Amino acid sequence: MLVRPKDGILDPQGDAVGQSLRNLGFDVSSARVGRVVDLELTSDAVDEARAQIERMCSELLANPLIESFEIRLGE
Amino acid sequence: MSAAPLVAVVVFPGSNDDHDAAWALGAVGAEPELVWHGERTLPPETAGVVLPGGFSYGDYLRTGAIASLAPVMDAVRAFAAAGGPVLGICNGFQVLCEARLLPGILRPNRQLEFVCRDATVRVESTDSAFLRRCSVGQELVIPVKHGDGAWYADEGTFIRLAAAGQLVLRYADDVNGALGNVAGVTNEAGNVFGLMPHPEHAVDPLLGSADGGPLLAALVDAASAFRPRAAA
Hints:
The complex is a heterodimer of chains A (75) and B (232). In chain A, 37% of the residues lie in helices and 13% in strands. Chain A has two helices and three strands. Chain A has helices at residues 12-23, 46-61, and strands at residues 2-5, 35-36, 67-70. Chain B has one domain (6-225): 3-Layer(aba) Sandwich (Rossmann fold), CATH 3.40.50. Chain B contains five helices and eleven strands. Chain B has helices at 18-27, 72-81, 91-98, 155-163, 213-225, and strands spanning 6-11, 31-36, 46-51, 86-89, 105-107, 115-123, 139-146, 150-152, 169-171, 182-186, 192-195. A nine-stranded mixed beta sheet of chain B has the order 2-1-3-4-11-10-9-6-7, sandwiched between helices. A two-stranded antiparallel sheet of chain B has the order 5-8. In chain B, a hairpin with a 5-residue loop joins β10 and β11 (192-195). The chains are: A alpha+beta (75), B alpha/beta (232). Chain A binds chain B through residues 9-10, 12-13, 16, 60-61, 63, 65-66, and chain B through 61-62, 65-66, 69, 98, 104-105, 107-112, 152-154, 177.
């Protein structure tokens, strides 16, 4: 799952990363820094796994005040 | 009922101001007791709770996020719901926000630097028991030391909290990029209070300031007066 600072939320870490990339000469207009959490679940029911991860996100992995999250299921 | 009220100081893995908080509480008339985060109950005589400063769980995930799920937090939640005074200092403030016992959240300082210095904060409201020994407009000099101290809430919440007098402390200058320079917040009932400055480091003029004393002494007042609302 991917956690990102919500749109409009100040992201000083992203700003610092963006500035450093510009210092290196890259043409970067914006950088936002989030987080990736790789999870292994024993369930093989896709819907159930997705529902579980959504609960994990809202209860711990992301704070809905400032972060959005996106779930990607693999094999 | 003149006995010193028992104030539980919760110790998380990574707390580092727990002993300072306990010492300072003793200096203002409380009987402090350190309580390990793995406990499921608070001592039966508990009349106040302090969540101290530090770096619980190494600030993993988000500051305070993992500590907010510690076993003892259910007991802290029940104590707060019964009207008991709960104070969160620095990391303790972060834990209370993550536990949704206080509104908003603490984010990384805008300057991305750890800030460690004396800060001047202004008292905005004295509705909460924690501010009863202060007056509106009073300025207190209390040290701050944090990397994630920028308090944030969405605009609607900010306006509502300001109108309700819950944004009780604001920095006199921009310390960390906190919205509205907010340094301390209470819950709606006024019995849960979190602040980034460290009153426990400012209880003796020998150490530069005694301005934290009135905040801790007010906690002791509230603890002395505390009678659980709900039958135990």
